[in-house]
Design brief:
single chain, about 0% strand, about 260 residues, mainly alpha, 8 helices
Length: about 260
Amino acid sequence: MKTPSREILCKVPAITLMFWIIKIMATTVGETAADFLSVKLNLGLTVTTFVMSGLLLITLFFQFRSKKYEPKIYWLAVVLISVVGTLITDNLTDNFGVSLKTTSIIFTFALLVTFAAWYMREKTLSVHSIFTVRREAFYWLAILFTFALGTAAGDLIAEYFSLGYWKSALLFAALIGMVTLAYYMLKLNSVFSFWIAYILTRPLGASLGDYLSQPGNQGGINLGTVRTSTIFLAIILSIVIYLTKTRRDEIPLEK
């Protein structure tokens, strides 16, 4: 039997304040967890990339199999794709010597190509209409490139302007604030606003993670990667449990 259209739910959550809180924290975990696994545990970038990519593929398998949005699966995928996106950029810059400027250009182009292909096939880039396998594939590919681009562009800006961690965080928070004001006051296109903000939250979360985890002589407050990751993961888990019970971030399929 076909499900009535009014009962069809999007495969991704509603864009609420909680969405952005979890997204920023997931980004922070992506930065600190990647550093912990590759440096502290001495796995190296290559091994860490393969391990985390494998976990991501397994999680996405269950995400695609799910018939509706499931907070625990969805947000686990976001945390893992945050780590993988960070590692992809780090591999290009550290292992292959590709400059941050070049990686930023590469991932900008890759993201634009993804958006172009997505729009040509589906006639929409709205995240409120993710209900088919093809749309979901475009969605997660775009998410991966936003994390990789955010990592490269964020590091490039911080390096170019020689900003410290907390100043970088303030800069990207201000840019997100400008996008928010443009959306509400100047009626900036909602889809464009979402994806710009999504990209900017990557360097914001990374700067926040570095500020909390790095030692004082490097501009941080020395919480360490383990404690920082644990604190943020605990907060993410608490919010996800709440959303799982209340289903407050489920949204009807966009017509």
